[in-house]
Amino acid sequence: MRVKYLLPCLLSTSMLMGMMKGAHAQGDFNFKYENSVVQAGIEVGSKGVKLSVVEIGKDAKNTGAFNILKDTSVNTDFISFTQPTFEATLNGLTGLYQAALNRFQIPSSKVFTVVSSGVKMQAEKENKTEWIHQLVDSFQARINEPGRVVEIVDVLQEARLSHLGIIPQSKRFSTFLIDIGSGNTKGGYFPFDDDLKTFKLFQLNWGTKSTANATEKKCEEYDKTLANFNRQLFRVLLAAENSELIYAVNSSGAYNLNDFIAFSGGIAWATATLIRPNEMESNVVTVTYEDVQKFNEMLFSDYASLSDSAIVKNLTNPNLDKNRVAKEVKRVHGVFDQRSLLAGSGLLLKIMRQFKSVYESKGFFLIKNGQVGWVTAYVDENN
Asked: Is residue 277 part of a domain?
């Protein structure tokens, strides 16, 4: 059985350990639906290995009936392609797989393992594809399952399933979805009404982590300051815009065919959480280009104002659960440091800018729960 897996949000290793200690069976989960299905997916992404356990209700495609039961990861930076990051990734992949089977008692047939398209693209760019094959072989040997499928995901498959799982049917043919991952950006739209086979792909060889890595390489040894990082980031993003981004957006043909521009991925979740903490219960947050631009500037000049304590202090809605807001903000800072947030939001801004002149009066949408999209789409297509 094969599956295309997309899961952008990452958590810290410490949260993984807490999860493994705190839940020992499906009886510990808080289910929301009757006659639901529980699936687990494990993805080797650019930044780390990620596990998501999701409860899927009936007719999830139309109703959005899914519930995240567990969501965690180990940060391993696989796309550095070094022996230490290889070993860390292999250990993380094995550990999360064993947790799904033994701690959460999910049958192996309901646990899907894949390598993301971002890793595939970066490996091809650096002629490191053999590292992926070695990882898969080592994983199969370690868990003693030579037949275990670990698919190296094609970017078109990943983008199409992501759209099917994330975007509700009512907006299926009017939304251009762009997923900003760690190693790459992909997405697209369905150009023909009622045709779910034809998908117009949008892709960039840039993601949050790959952008940050390229910027770090430009920072010379004698100047590792944040100010220099920000200067070099401007140059990296400008080069990406001129060499790849403008062409990719223009050739997508999305201008006249889509009323909605939606972003998913880790940086979309992080940006939505920090910009709109008062909308913590909303999975989709509306923002403008100017909102994200202001956020990007604050990341550099007033980072302290985006801490969990500062954000909670400024909340004015008495009905908000401040502890939950603080916990989610801490999650963001556990996944992304200041430089990664600068890189990811900078890339987000560059993409948004290409649509701003066309959609002057329209906002953009940030989707916070995009990591479960592939699961709902997969189950719907295979049942």
From this structure: yes
